[in-house]
Write a structure and sequence with these properties.
The chain is an alpha/beta fold. It folds into two domains: about 170 residues, Ribonuclease E inhibitor RraA/RraA-like (Glucose Oxidase, domain 1); about 30 residues. It has seven helices and twelve strands.
């Protein structure tokens, strides 16, 4: 069954979600601006599935690929995989992996690391957000070793029950305990912004519009 909260969140945008979180005293929920989408036109929203790993050249190619395919097989449908690789040199997503996750119904992938095979990934419409590109893969070099445990990206702690919204402006994490309230409040804010927009387009002074609707 599709996650209706993820669908509703996907209809929002990060600026409005951030405004709600700020007003709720949770303004430290934005991931670093170095994380960018492969395709700026794609949006990504859903409940997170957290992964972390480590650089480890003592592992054999078989061991690293076994750990990586475990990551792929355990990623649940309708989730967004968030990965903290603790590495800044390798590609932590590629062609076959993106195809696999997409076929399993995973909504997208966010990694505080690298990606390769980017043209193919864009061609299949699988949303990926990453920090850099490199052809160097993980084989014999990197191991995924923790699943569904808290991870830290930038200064944001991400828990398995959190939600995420990512678009061309950035990536916002919604704490699981308040995620549904944030989504509902964001929808109300967007409705108010539409009324402000209509008022401005009709020629109303922006100061008056702000005082009327309490939003700008």
């Amino acid at each position: 069954m599709a996650d209706r909260w993820a669908t509703q969140l996907e209809n929002c945008y990060t600026g409005a979600v951030y405004d709600v979180l700020r007003d709720m005293g949770r303004d430290n929920q934005v991931l670093p601006s170095s994380l960018r989408p492969l395709n700026p036109d794609e949006k990504l929203a859903g409940k997170v599935y957290t992964v972390s790993g480590r650089r480890d050249s003592s592992q054999s190619p078989h061991e690293t690929l076994l750990a990586w395919t475990t990551l792929l097989s355990q990623s649940p449908p309708d989730s967004v995989v968030l990965c903290q690789p603790n590495d800044s040199t390798l590609a932590h997503m590629g062609e076959l992996s993106a195809e696999t996750l997409k076929s399993r119904g995973v909504r997208g992938y966010i990694v505080d690391g690298g990606c390769r095979d980017t043209q193919f990934i864009q061609s299949i419409g699988f949303p990926v957000f990453c920090c850099y590109f490199t052809p160097v893969d993980i084989v014999g070099r990197w191991v995924a070793d923790q699943f569904q445990e808290p991870i830290v990206i930038g200064s944001v702690v991400i828990h398995p029950d959190d939600y995420v919204l990512a678009d061309s402006d950035g990536i916002v994490i919604l704490p699981g305990s308040i995620a549904f309230e944030v989504i509902e409040r964001t929808e109300l804010i967007m409705q108010t912004e539409n009324r402000v927009r209509t008022a401005i387009q009709s020629g109303i002074d922006p100061r008056k519009a702000y005082l009327t609707y309490g939003k700008f």
